[in-house]
Amino acid sequence: ESGLLKTWGDDSNWRILRAKVDIDVGARVCVEWRVKRSATNCNPHFALTNSNNDQRVCWQDRDNDGDWDYQRIVNGSTSYVKDQATFAVDTWYCVQICRTGTTSFVSRILNSERSILASVADTQSAWTVAFTPVIWRNNNVNVYVDWFLIRKYSSSPPSISYSSEESGSWTIDGHTFTKRKKVTITSSQALSGYQIQLDYSQWGEPGIKITRKVQVVGELG
């Protein structure tokens, strides 16, 4: 019962975990789990479902055949997009389900290097009640969840502009930088608690890596 999850159901066949807080019906969110399983004879589900359980977006291995299958339930009617990527034993995956609009979803399976192995874009009827991330786990096989997160999108995406690159020498926390580029973020709403996605192709260097994040309070506007 610690962290973001709590038990929703538990019987001889299934244990169901759900987020402790429901997500507002109008929210745009991205939910991620980092998971692995110890054998193929189980069918763990990683899903967004509404509180009536008649609307669902889900990744699972429906046939226990070692492949990821995409499940959708719309007004109680179930369908599948099968065999989207290999679901190997003892291998970590990132399961990602994003509600990108009122009726639109994008769901992905990624490997540990964040490369996309499978992606399904889906359109459903508008959800009318609150929804929550859940995990169904078959009790006869261990399913491991390394981490779980919910990322909420702002209702009004900010605009981002990039200035020209400057050369020089700047030392921050003992690390010296020789190039910098000002990033201006403009938003109509407060961005406290939000993450900003930047376009690193703006730096023009292939394979660029972030070694340190620096936030200068007061220069985001």
TL;DR?
It contains no helices and 16 strands. By secondary structure, the protein is an all-beta fold. The protein has a 7-stranded antiparallel β-sheet with strand order 1-2-11-4-5-6-7, with no helix packed on it. Strands 10-9-8-3-12 form a 5-stranded antiparallel β-sheet, with no helix packed on it. The chain has a two-stranded antiparallel sheet with strand order 13-16.
- As for the CATH topology of the largest domain, it is Jelly Rolls
Distance between the termini: 39 Å
By DSSP, the count of extended strands is 16
What is the CATH domain class of the largest domain? Mainly Beta
Rg from alpha-carbon coordinates: 20 Å
The coarse overall form would be globular
Structure annotation, total helices: 0
Residue share in helix: under 10%
By secondary-structure content and strand pairing, the structural class works out as mainly beta
- What is the string of SSEs from the N terminus onward? EEEEEEEEEEEEEEEE
